[in-house]
UniProtKB/TrEMBL annotation:
Protein name: Biotin carboxyl carrier protein of acetyl-CoA carboxylase
Keywords, sorted A to Z: Biotin, Fatty acid biosynthesis, Fatty acid metabolism, Lipid biosynthesis, Lipid metabolism
Function: This protein is a component of the acetyl coenzyme A carboxylase complex; first, biotin carboxylase catalyzes the carboxylation of the carrier protein and then the transcarboxylase transfers the carboxyl group to form malonyl-CoA.
CDD domains, sorted: biotinyl_domain
UniProt source species: Tabrizicola oligotrophica
């Protein structure tokens, strides 16, 4: 099992806007380079890309949840 960590503190978003579907849902397969979410810091949005591939992603934080740098965003099997 691998973990995907937040590279910086901010607010985690699972989709690009409230009316769009999430980049990845719990249970989805993930490839290296897939965007799994966004971190917003002072009105600037940074894509969070997976550095691992796997068959099952499980998010450890909710949409619009504040996170600290190094926090686990998701786990990948």
């Amino acid at each position: 099992m691998a973990q995907i960590h937040s590279p910086l503190p901010g607010t985690f978003y699972r989709s690009s806007s409230p009316d769009k579907p999430p980049f990845k849902a719990d249970g989805d397969a993930v490839a290296v380079g897939d965007v799994i979410g966004l971190i917003e810091v002072m009105k600037s949005f940074h894509e969070i890309r997976s550095e691992v591939a796997g068959a099952n992603i499980r998010f450890e934080c909710d949409n619009e949840e504040p996170v600290m740098a190094g926090a686990v965003l998701a786990q990948v099997d």
